[in-house]
């Protein structure tokens, strides 16, 4: 369990690291408009083509972007499955919290039952 | 791009009154602050008022209180909902809604987390806070959803 969690953290960490850079977020935003070659991305951004290529490699490494070859053209596109890792991490948070909540309810219910057990005559009534 | 709501549910062996009370009044007893909080182990969490407008506040000795969100719905035994912006301002809140449904004497607790699109682009800080195990990483989704 600890190992699985560590692996998930590692993957999600790569996603967040990749998105932690403004130019890379800008690239992601541009790619929402559809697949694009490196040159076109560089034209739209304020950084040069080599920098764009480098950012694309980071995004690809995190699983957020993938490239497709169309003849001589190399197009970059969003890889939505990259966000799945990040989403799983968030789901994991709620699962941990809700499991702790369920344990607390169990404990409280046990306590309540123990308190409610009539030791002698339970004849007392409300009002 | 819209992001699908996150939905989780858990069936607890207690009536709705108890399930609601544990979720709200006793959140400080069960919320896993050691892994999911702004201040880490030793912090406590509480709804500071049991009504709409009440706040979910994390406190720890020697640290400033961290407001995680504000109650938007307080309907004992049926539902509680609150905004969700731990580690950042209310303008970046998403929404968490929790409902309590009777299920043959047990209670089905459903949680829905929506509105992640409201987050801005703040992934640097998200990453930093992520290292502390905190889901401000939601920002990262926003980077993808914002376009």
TrEMBL record, chain A:
Single Gene Ontology MF annotation: DNA-binding transcription factor activity
InterPro entries for this protein: ArsR-like_HTH (IPR011991), HTH_ArsR_DNA-bd_dom (IPR001845), WH-like_DNA-bd_sf (IPR036388), WH_DNA-bd_sf (IPR036390)
UniProt xrefs under Pfam families: HTH_20 (PF12840)
HTH arsR-type domain location: 4-98
PROSITE patterns the UniProt entry points to: HTH_ARSR_2
NCBIfam families: HTH_metalloreg (NF033788)
Protein name from the UniProt record: Winged helix-turn-helix transcriptional regulator
Species of provenance: Nocardioides islandensis
TrEMBL record, chain B:
Protein name: SRPBCC domain-containing protein
Family classification: Belongs to the AHA1 family.
InterPro entries (alphabetical): ASHA1/2-like_C, START-like_dom_sf
Pfam families hit by this protein: AHSA1
Gene3D superfamilies reported for this sequence: 3.30.530.20
Source superkingdom: Bacteria
Source organism (scientific name): Nocardioides islandensis
Domain Activator of Hsp90 ATPase homologue 1/2-like C-terminal, chain residue ranges per copy: 14-143
Lineage start: Bacteria, Bacillati, Actinomycetota, Actinomycetes, Propionibacteriales
């Amino acid at each position: 369990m600890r190992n699985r969690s560590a692996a998930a953290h590692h993957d999600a960490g790569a996603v967040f690291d990749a998105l932690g850079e403004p130019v890379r977020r800008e690239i992601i935003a541009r790619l929402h408009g559809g697949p694009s070659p490196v040159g076109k991305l560089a034209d739209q951004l304020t950084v040069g083509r080599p920098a764009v290529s480098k950012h694309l490699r980071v995004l690809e490494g995190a699983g957020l972007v993938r490239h497709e070859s169309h003849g001589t053209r190399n197009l970059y596109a969003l890889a939505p499955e990259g966000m799945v890792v990040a989403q799983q991490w968030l789901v994991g948070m709620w699962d941990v919290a809700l499991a702790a909540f369920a344990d607390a309810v169990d404990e409280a219910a046990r306590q309540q039952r123990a308190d409610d057990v009539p030791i002698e005559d339970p004849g007392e009534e409300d009002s | 791009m819209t992001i699908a709501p996150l939905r989780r549910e858990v069936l607890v062996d207690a009536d709705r009154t108890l399930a609601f009370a544990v979720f709200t009044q006793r959140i400080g007893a069960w919320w896993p602050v050691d892994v999911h909080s702004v201040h880490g182990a030793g912090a406590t969490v509480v709804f500071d008022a049991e009504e709409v407008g009440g706040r979910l506040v994390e406190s720890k000795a020697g640290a400033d209180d961290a407001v995680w969100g504000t109650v938007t719905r307080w309907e004992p035994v049926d539902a509680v909902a609150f905004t969700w912006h731990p580690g950042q301002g209310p303008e970046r809140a998403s929404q968490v809604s929790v409902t309590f449904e009777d299920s043959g004497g047990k209670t089905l607790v459903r949680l829905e987390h929506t509105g992640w699109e409201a987050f801005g682009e703040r992934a640097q800080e998200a990453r930093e806070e992520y290292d502390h195990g905190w889901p401000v990483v939601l920002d990262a989704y926003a980077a993808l959803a914002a376009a």
